[in-house]
Design brief:
InterPro entries: Homeodomain-like_sf, HTH_AraC, HTH_AraC-typ_CS, PchR_regulatory_protein. This protein is of the alpha+beta class. It folds into two domains: 220 residues, Jelly Rolls, CATH 2.60.120; 59 residues, Arc Repressor Mutant, subunit A, CATH 1.10.10.60. It contains twelve helices and twelve strands. The strands form two sheets. It has an eight-stranded antiparallel sheet with strand order 2-3-4-5-11-7-9-12, sandwiched between helices. Strand 3 and strand 4 form a beta hairpin.
Length: 339
């Protein structure tokens, strides 16, 4: 059976919607907001709405006679503006996620799902024939999504080493039953040119917010479980730092390699466990040791600076003062006065 390919880019341009009409062999209707087609590939409707600044929605309601490869094309990095595409897959039996960039081999998903993909990433889907194909896709600007509750967790997922850890730049979450009901209402709206704009915005933005809430909750649960998973390795990293308090510690990438973690995972979970960055924790322990030696040993400030691995005494004094609020010389002087 011959398959067809539909390539789409961002949906916030009329030209992209016209191109989609050409690729499906459909007719543009109702002020270029609806594509209606009935051809050898099948029949169906695709409607687009501009919900508000930075937020566009497109609803697909199709019945296909031929398999279709649906490709969401990556946008050039210089124009993505940290935006995303969010796909709400309402008929998982007929819509399969097949590829992310050059990575293939995805398993079939048999439940309704969201898939969030950065605009800088290419995602490939397979639309299967002889079944209803229903999905909703959103084009979300970086500005719009940054103002939504739950965004920080999303940002951490994509920015905090997802690629370094061998992950893929896609975030998938299951639809809850109430969210699925909301999606059904939106799909029913594809036939209503006079659908209430306020209701559409509330339903569309509600879908996105439900996804963000589920993703934030899932990321929090995953983080908690990973703390247990990485705890021993982070303790190993701490031991390496403590062994180097009187000398220059290994570079971060070397410590990560020594404990078999990526650098981003080491940084992230070290801070979650100890409440400080790796460097701040190391410096705190180093300055605590310097103060202990200063109070317990008959060494001069110069000798302690050298003992702690500083080539320049002035550098040691500067860091000591920032950490303890007073110079090592003043502590030494006060100690001698009280002797």
């Amino acid at each position: 059976m011959k398959s067809y390919s539909i390539r789409v880019s961002n949906i916030d341009r009329e030209s992209a919607f016209k191109r989609l009409a050409l690729e499906t062999g459909g007719e543009l209707e109702e002020g270029h907001t609806l594509i209606r087609f009935s051809s050898e590939i099948g029949r169906g409707r695709i409607r687009t709405w501009h919900l508000e600044a930075g937020l566009y929605m497109r609803v697909w309601d199709l019945y296909l006679l031929k398999p279709i490869e649906f490709i969401k094309e990556a946008l050039p990095v210089h124009i993505t503006n940290n935006g995303f595409s969010l796909l709400c897959i309402h008929t998982p039996e007929s819509v399969e996620l097949r590829s992310i960039n050059q990575h293939h081999q995805f398993n079939k998903v048999r439940e309704r799902r969201f898939a969030l993909v950065p605009d800088s990433v290419t995602a490939g889907f397979q639309f299967n024939p002889a079944l209803p194909v229903q999905l909703i896709d959103f084009s979300i600007s970086g500005y719009w999504i940054r103002n939504q509750p739950g965004y920080l967790r999303i940002a951490k997922y994509f920015n905090d080493g997802v690629m370094e850890d061998g992950g893929l730049p896609v975030l998938i979450e299951a639809l809850q039953s109430k969210t699925g009901q909301m999606a059904t209402k939106l799909i029913d709206s594809v036939d209503d040119p006079r659908a209430d704009a306020t209701a559409l915005f509330m339903q569309g933005s509600g879908l996105i917010k439900d996804f963000l809430t589920a993703a934030a909750r899932g990321e929090q649960e995953k983080t908690s479980s990973h703390i247990e998973l990485y705890y021993e390795k982070i303790k190993e990293a701490e031991s390496i730092l403590l062994d180097h308090l009187q000398k220059t510690p290994p570079r971060m990438n070397m410590i990560a390699k020594m404990v078999a973690l990526s650098e981003s995972t080491l940084k992230r979970y070290f801070k979650l466990i100890y409440g400080k960055s790796v460097y701040d924790y190391y410096l705190n322990k180093k300055m605590e040791m310097a103060r202990t030696i200063l109070l317990q040993k008959p060494y001069s400030v110069n000798e302690i600076a050298e003992l702690m691995g500083y080539e320049k005494v002035s550098h040691f004094i500067e860091i000591f003062k920032k950490h303890h609020g007073c110079s090592p010389g003043s502590i030494k002087k006060k100690q001698l006065e009280n002797a």
